[in-house]
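Hello Y.,

Per our agreement to keep a running log of every chain we model this quarter, I'm adding this entry. I've kept the format consistent with earlier entries: sequence first, then predicted structure.
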Amino acid sequence: MDLSNSRVLVLGLGITGLSTVKALHKLDAQIIVSDSKKEEDLREFFQKIDDIYVEKYLVTEDIPLEDIDLIIKSPGIPPSNPIIHEAKKRNIEVITDIELAYRISPTDNIIAITGTNGKTTTTALVGEIFKKAKYKTYLAGNLGVGILADMINAEKEDVFVIEASSFQLEDTVHFKPKVSLITNITPDHLDWHRSLDNYVEAKKKVFKNQDDNDYTVLNYEDRTLRQIANEIDSNIIWFSANQVLDRGVYVEEDNIIIKDEMIYVKVMPCKDLKILGRHNLENALASVGIAYAMGVDLTYIREALKEFLGVEHRIEYVKEIGGISFYNDSKGTNPDSTIKAIEALNGPIILIAGGYDKGTEFHELIKSFNGKVKELILLGETKEKIKETALELNFNNIHLVENMKEAVNLSYKLGEENDNVLLSPACASWDMYKSFEERGKDFKNSVYNIEVE
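Predicted structure for the entry above:
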């Protein structure tokens, strides 16, 4: 894609914005940047691009669009943004960074992983498999790493494993991965997408441009995915942790199996996985499906599966204090994710939950407690909403707190030997933190500095 001397507006100067500006500079584009923050709040950003000339429009929506050729927006900026609205009226193309990355990519080895839950763990595991197989492998997308800075320097043989959020997929046009994966679909980000149908349509864009030379890996246990399978033109690889499939990746007699018309292979025993929970078994099966589609040798698949310890902030064991185990699941940003974390742990649970309100309901979360969650500690914007739902469903052991330190200290006081304290908020972090990573680190620091009487 030739962008030399094109005037490109970068909307939003976070992680993807930084990567985008650096790539556009190498593509000889004329770069205009815009953000809702003041320049003094973006000092670190501008220090990182101090050798690149950019036009700045900060803390304003009054941007002259007459001579703008292309807009690359931060994924989190909603379609309702006035600048986006005006640009589309003027027929100015608006895309996200993964779309531009595809257009400039020298490699066909692009793997895109989306879904409501399981994206991060699966992306990390797939990355480990390809690294074992000696591919130069880049992890990018919603992992907090901008893709463009790496793509601009990539080689034909390189592999890109992209965690693709619905926000990023929403504004793709030609994006066409070699292998796509949808882990599952449950209601999420409805405040942004405005409806579940819109959310599903954004997720479907991961396979929309694929053809019969490509592969799509799908969770057979997800009803929505079974319903949309007839819209897919690529080769479907199903996976299931619950039933034996005629073709696909599944579990039989506690072994991970790959089966198609040509092969039947026992990959490894499920007990050899080090990651906890049935949801992580599904993540492993999905990863096997991707690696199989890409022709990775089984030796490397087995090695990576056996060695993989999981990712930070996803049911991450932190510490044991006085017989009480603390787990950081800050990546649990919706109820379904938190339900899976509850299912993964053995023993009584003191759950710390609450955060930014994405318009989600919490009835299924409370119903999932099943006597396993003994105390519920709530903080953040949704604490009253979750409390009301819990009381409605006759769960009464509820405690409201103001911050993470208070939550952790209270959990320790309430806990007994063999209890688990689980931070799994079922909500995004944006009411109190910049990211779920920052929230998880605050939890861990609070655990390390717990007030022991």
